[in-house]
Specification:
The chain crosses the membrane at residues 12-31, 37-56, 63-83. Probably a homodimer. Its EC number is 2.7.7.85. It is a single chain. The chain is α+β, with helices and mostly antiparallel strands and 264 residues long. It has two domains: 14-107, no CATH class; 120-263, 3-Layer(aba) Sandwich (YojJ-like (1), CATH 3.40.1700.10. It has eleven helices and seven strands. A hairpin with a 6-residue loop joins β5 and β6. α2 runs antiparallel to α3 and α7 packs antiparallel against α11 (253-263). The longest helix has 25 residues, at 84-108.
């Protein structure tokens, strides 16, 4: 027997389906940003707190209902305070992606097919040679490759250089006695735009304990932008590559060159 009311979906519109899909996308997008961070534990605690409030309210426990209700009445403000870093990262991520896609769409009309097919092997050579040399000497380095140079995002925290990439220049910047060796070098179109640049650190709890500030900064900048990063460990000389918050570790110079050829 079929007891299902045939008119149960009569008021269901196409816009309702779109509404549900958009909410699902937003929830997934927010979860992907806070996944692996302490914010997940806070969110679980908030959900449990609200669940307890519903239970005591249903059981008509007036005192507890008043206490929990008082906290929930100011919950929106408290959530903004608690999740201020995640909200900031969420807004930065959206703004950066929109800006980058707009610039990419504009430049796609100016770049010819011949330009896009130019082999970048010669341009990568000084970068690979510098990484190989710094890996052997265990010189810590952090190189960020960005498709576009955002003055407000990069230049405000670093020293503006705007010079062609060269092996000696990279080694000089990251030399341990150099005043610019702390921070990152930002490279755009094979030009060193800034050095000693301060990057946002990743607060993910899933990172290995041996990751230092360079690795966390590389992961952090790739989480909030479309940039990629190369890290040379000062302790081990190991070369790593970061993209979209993920890290490929223990790369040889040849493996690094292959990855950069595809990414750049």
């Amino acid at each position: 027997m079929n007891n299902l009311d045939p008119n149960i979906f009569s008021g269901f519109r196409l816009l309702d389906i779109i509404d549900i899909l958009l909410v699902a996308i937003i929830i997934y997008y927010i979860y992907s940003l806070i996944k692996g961070t302490i914010a997940v534990n806070i969110l679980i605690g908030v959900a449990l707190f609200y669940g307890i409030y519903l239970v005591v309210k249903q059981m008509e426990m007036r005192l507890l209902t008043e206490i929990f209700g008082g906290f929930i009445s100011v919950g929106s403000i408290a959530l903004i305070v608690v999740f201020q870093q995640e909200i900031r990262r969420f807004l930065i991520h959206i703004g950066k992606n929109i800006s980058l896609r707009r610039k990419r769409f504009f430049w796609s009309f100016l770049n010819t097919k011949k330009t896009s097919q130019i082999d970048n092997g010669e341009q990568l050579k000084p970068i690979i040679d510098a990484c190989r040399s710094m890996s052997r000497s265990r010189t810590g380095a952090l190189l960020v490759f960005s498709r576009y140079f955002d003055e407000e995002y990069y230049q405000s925290s670093g020293e503006y250089i705007d010079a062609p990439v060269s092996k000696r220049l990279l080694e000089s910047i990251f030399f341990k006695n150099s005043p610019l060796h702390d921070g990152a070098v930002v490279i755009v179109d094979f030009r060193i735009m800034t050095a000693s640049c301060v990057l946002p650190l990743s607060d993910s709890e899933d990172l290995p304990p041996q990751f230092g500030l360079r690795h966390r900064a590389a992961i952090g900048v790739t989480e909030v932008s479309e940039a990629v990063a190369v890290i040379v460990s000062e302790e081990t000389g190991e070369i790593s590559f970061a993209k979209d918050g993920n890290v490929n570790m223990n790369l040889s110079p040849e493996e690094l060159e292959k990855i950069l050829r595809e990414e750049l």
